[in-house]
Amino acid sequence: MKHKEELSTDRNIIEELYDSDLFHLTELETVSEEYKSMLDKLIKTETEIMQSFPQCKSLFEEYQTANIALHNLSNRNEFVAGFRTGAQIVLEMLKPIK
Fold this sequence. Notes:
- The chain is mainly alpha-helical.
- It has one domain (4-94).
- 66% of the residues lie in helices and 0% in strands.
- The protein has helices spanning 13-19, 33-52, 57-94.
- α1 (13-19) crosses α3 (57-94).
């Protein structure tokens, strides 16, 4: 893990934690059946689009790349927000009961 002074100026340590894949967020064996079903539907639909509009292959690939980048950014932002919320809950729990 990088030290604080080594982190880039526009990223924080929580984002670095997310990007380091410390919790193996990309392992597919933990994916639910619902997720697998939706992924299969997505792949089937993409295949149908490419078969129907082969002339749009490069435009569709550009769309896919932009969509994946947007989802990756959204996933990281959600992780950071959830991590911070969890930390706030822990801090609240440490306060004495009145």
